[in-house]
Specification:
Blueprint: E1 14-18, E2 21-24, E3 29-32, H1 47-57, H2 68-80, E4 86-90, H3 93-108, E5 112-116, H4 134-137, H5 148-151, E6 154-157, H6 162-172, E7 176-181, H7 197-208, E8 211-215, H8 227-232, E9 238-242, E10 252-256, H9 258-261, H10 280-293, H11 298-320, E11 325-329, E12 332-336, H12 345-348, H13 353-365, E13 368-369, E14 378-379, H14 386-406
Parallel strand pairs: 3-13, 5-6, 5-7, 7-8, 8-9
Antiparallel strand pairs: 1-2, 2-3, 4-10, 9-10, 11-12, 12-14
Helix pairs in contact: 1-10, 2-10, 6-7, 11-14, 13-14
This protein binds pyridoxal-5'-phosphate (PLP).
Length: 407
């Protein structure tokens, strides 16, 4: 179980979900801004996604060999993502990043990896160093069970600090297999890339022959139809996907330059496989979700709704005298309890997590479910209408006042 789900000592147990609402086992209903940590951009139990899964399940749940839906989804990803020429389906974001790193090491014949503090890439061993999300929430620098030897080749650097990356590349460049980055960091709260940061990583990789891996498990199909690589105009060599691509069912994928992807077995020599990969139910849910996102005006509408919500939240915080900094992009954002700015991991740590905890509980009491940790994102989707946003802003007025009073 992901640590971030725990909600302190009294976890929610969900019995049902519909649109932007979840209902717990006690019958309480909440407006949901976690969206299963991002995948449910179309909303819970979207009728068309449900119909697609229902139709598919009558023809079997897993074949263990390719099916048409898998090819259709792969084609869609290649069409949407500027830097993806070939794609391999897996079952989770963790599998996607794990496989991409193996591939990068296999292709370059090098061992070292550069990652950034506060970025989370799943729970496999070599990326658990100074990770974000639940690891960060629990304050773990590393993880028992991960041998030192395994993370010996993982170099953690500060997000948005290009000169730190340049210094390491200057010294160790010929040993570096890959730089892996969340192009928008969304596991230490939301932190946007500074202008030039992603371009700088691209240039440094080109300079030393390392591969640039964008972990777009969160940003893929969210910050733009073609992900962060489209939004920021930077082409990674490999891209990792998850969450939205499965429309709420378990999926991940990795893809990128054809010459690199052709090294994956069975065409190439870098082994990777999965019993349930390309699962038809997940493919059907993902395809339908991408189809819904492809309708005219969806991305501008989501962005306008998030803007509306965060403007309301900022006003409510200001009126209550609680200093906050809101970082946002497209349909995801995060309110830090600090005057800010918040542009890197160190600055995220200035946020008053006790105040966030009070805010979270007060919002929950008012029927609004936010991420239980400061170091996660708020997601909105197609099912969040102005009515729900207005209700949330009103709830926040009370919750910010409670934060002020309890400090
Ligand atoms: C950016 C990023 N990469 C990878 C992962 C791991 O994905 P999964 O939980 O599907 O294994 C996550 C999960 O939150 C993520 O946010």
């Amino acid at each position: 179980m992901r640590c971030a789900r725990a909600v302190g000592s009294s976890p929610l147990f969900i019995a049902a979900a519909d649109g932007c609402r979840i209902q717990d086992e006690d019958g309480n209903i909440y407006i949901d801004y976690v969206s299963s940590w991002g995948p449910l951009i179309a909303g819970h139990a979207h009728p068309e996604v449900v119909a697609a899964v229902r139709d598919t399940v009558t023809r079997g749940t897993s074949y263990g060999i390719p099916c048409r839906l898998e090819i259709e989804l792969a084609r869609k990803v290649v069409e949407l993502m500027p830097a993806v020429e070939m794609v391999r389906m897996v079952n989770s974001g963790t599998e996607a990043t794990m496989s991409a790193i193996r591939l990068a090491r296999g292709c370059t014949g090098r061992k070292k990896l550069i990652k950034f503090s506060g970025c989370y890439h799943g729970h496999h061993d070599c990326l658990l160093a100074q990770a974000g999300s639940g690891v960060l929430t629990l304050g773990l620098p590393g993880c028992p069970g991960v041998p030192e030897e395994v993370v010996r080749h993982t170099i953690c650097l500060p997000y948005n600090d290009l000169s730190a990356v340049a210094a390491v590349i200057g010294e160790l460049g010929p040993e570096v297999a890959a730089i892996i980055v969340e192009p928008v960091a969304a596991n230490m709260g939301v932190v946007l890339p500074e202008p030039g940061f992603l371009e700088g990583l691209r240039n440094l990789c080109d300079h030393c022959g390392a591969l640039l891996i964008f972990d777009e498990v969160i940003t893929g199909f969210r910050v733009a139809p073609g992900g962060a690589q489209q939004r920021f105009g930077v082409r990674p060599d490999l891209t990792c996907l998850g969450k939205i691509i499965g429309g709420g069912l378990p999926v991940g994928a990795y893809g990128g330059r054809r010459d690199i992807m052709e090294r994956v077995a069975p065409v190439g020599d870098v082994y990777q496989a999965g019993t349930l990969s390309g699962n038809p139910l997940a493919m059907a849910a993902g395809l339908k979700t991408l189809e819904l996102l492809g309708q005219d005006g969806v991305y501008p509408l989501l962005a306008a709704n998030l803007e509306y919500l965060t403007r309301g939240l900022a006003e409510a915080a200001r009126d209550a005298g609680v200093p906050t900094t809101i970082n946002q992009i497209a349909s995801m954002g995060c309110s830090f309890f600090t005057p800010g700015p918040v542009r890197n991991f160190a600055q995220t740590q200035q946020s008053d997590t006790r105040a966030y905890g009070i805010f979270f509980r007060e919002m929950l009491d008012r029927g609004v479910y936010l991420a239980p940790s400061q170091f996660e994102a708020l997601f909105i989707g197609l099912a969040h209408g102005r009515g729900e946003l207005d209700y949330t802003i009103e709830a926040a007025r009370g919750a910010f006042k409670a934060v002020r009073e309890q400090e």
